User: What shape does this take?
Amino acid sequence: MSVCTSCGACCAAFRVSFYWAEADDAPGGTVPVDTTERLGPHLRCMRGTSARDPRCQQLRGEIPGARCAIYASRPSPCRMLEPYDEQGRPTAQCAKARSLHGLPVLTPQKAAD
Assistant: This one.
């Protein structure tokens, strides 16, 4: 299991906002609309992430070790957030989310030979 599917820190650190048409009430949308809230005419966010202490309502379990209940249907911001960059270094977003929850920043990955 990858660190990205077994941590959950990012799901309880940031507002997850995205274009409204990613929700399944739009043609081709995949994010369950009942898991979102409207932010404006063109934006939605995952329920729970616009709170002062954000925590996506689709996050199941405790951090670390929490999992996304809609992982296969998650919105683009969730798909784009990566624990490591192209050089194998921990990303700033992942590091910030982990530190907010008292978790150590990931160690750099070694380059594949």
In short: The helical segments are 76-80, 92-100. The chain has one domain: 3-100. The chain has two helices and five strands. The longest strand covers residues 43-46.
